[in-house]
Structure to design on (91 residues):
């Protein structure tokens, strides 16, 4: 796999991960789609002056292994990301 292909796959997975984080954060069922899902994702990204997406982006930059983990164990990867992103909000 070329570097460009690898980078593209990781960007796609990163976007997918943010969609799943938003879905989980707002308790949206897995069957939700379309405008309902788009609204929730946008709300999650914009929450707290974009802190969710900013924290996510920084975490993925510092720990790219989370993308690799997501490929094999999405639940565990998302759980670890949630712990890092939301830890300061609940502390």
């Amino acid at each position: 796999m070329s570097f460009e292909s690898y980078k593209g796959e990781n960007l796609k997975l990163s976007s997918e991960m943010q969609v799943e984080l938003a879905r989980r954060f707002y308790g949206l069922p897995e069957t939700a789609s379309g405008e309902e899902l788009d609204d929730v994702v946008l709300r999650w990204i914009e929450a707290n002056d974009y802190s969710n997406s900013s924290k996510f982006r920084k975490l993925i930059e510092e720990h790219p292994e989370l993308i690799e983990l997501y490929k094999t164990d999405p639940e565990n990867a998302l759980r670890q990301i949630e712990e890092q992103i939301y830890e300061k909000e609940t502390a």
